[in-house]
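To fix ideas at the outset, we first show an illustrative case, written as a sequence plus integers encoding its fold:
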Amino acid sequence: MINENAIIVESLVKQFKKFTALDGVSFTIPRGSIYGFLGPNGAGKTTTLRILATLLLPTQGRAWVAGEDVLLHPEKARGRFGYMPDFFGVYDDLTVKEYLEFYAQAHGVPRCQWRKTTDDLLELVELGHKREDFVETLSRGMKQRLGLARCLVHDPDVLLLDEPASGLDPRARVEMREILKEISRMKKTVLVSSHILPELADLSTEVGIIHRGRMVASGSVDSIMARLGASRVLEVHVLDKAEAAVQVLERQPGINDVEILSEEGLVRAVFSGSVDDQVAILKSLHEADIPIISFNTVGGLEELFMTLTEEEGEN
């Protein structure tokens, strides 16, 4: 099944004895997207990724990765994706270079390409200076980046990443996020799961939210919020020209209830527009010569997540 979608999941069910881990999960991921797969711990994220990675058979349903049926043609599918589980082992007694060359050989990469492949990937994950160091000497963040490089040795179309920033400190999380953005610019599709929303808020072009084994939403944040009739709050901090900013904002699409919150120039409005509307608003403020200190929306992905995973009747 080959079309504009890099990943297609149709009605996946996975039962472990009497426990249903996945209950009819369906979603699609457009090619070139960074798809944030969100859900509380135990929601079904890892089970879904293991099925896509051909490591687990579903009870029912089908799935395709980069046009390959993961159930009918698992070996072909494995050549089209790179998979990074939430916990993975490394060979401590290999150097960083040897570690990547080992996986290049395992994936059938010709030996004549090993040096260039290794050098390019180490540059991408900023580990070029560690190529002769033993893996055991690397920090956790460096090992995570090395694991990401390992996923790319055979130049796959799709990356399946299960909690790639798990256990990392804030600096390492930022470094991982920037590398994923660079990978996306390489026209690869990235499915990245997480239960930590801020990791994915400014990274994902599409999101899927899973809760108790069921998909409760999939698509762009703006489209999902529009479907739910949800609004965000736009906060603009301006210098000296708060009244002028209010006049500009009141004329913009998706803006309601504009007010000045402080004498320091903080202006707030209810906002129900799209990302393109935000760009237009910011452009209008600049064209009106209004000096902007900050411009951001409040709510968005976190509010959406809490709304969709709220349990009726819970105490």
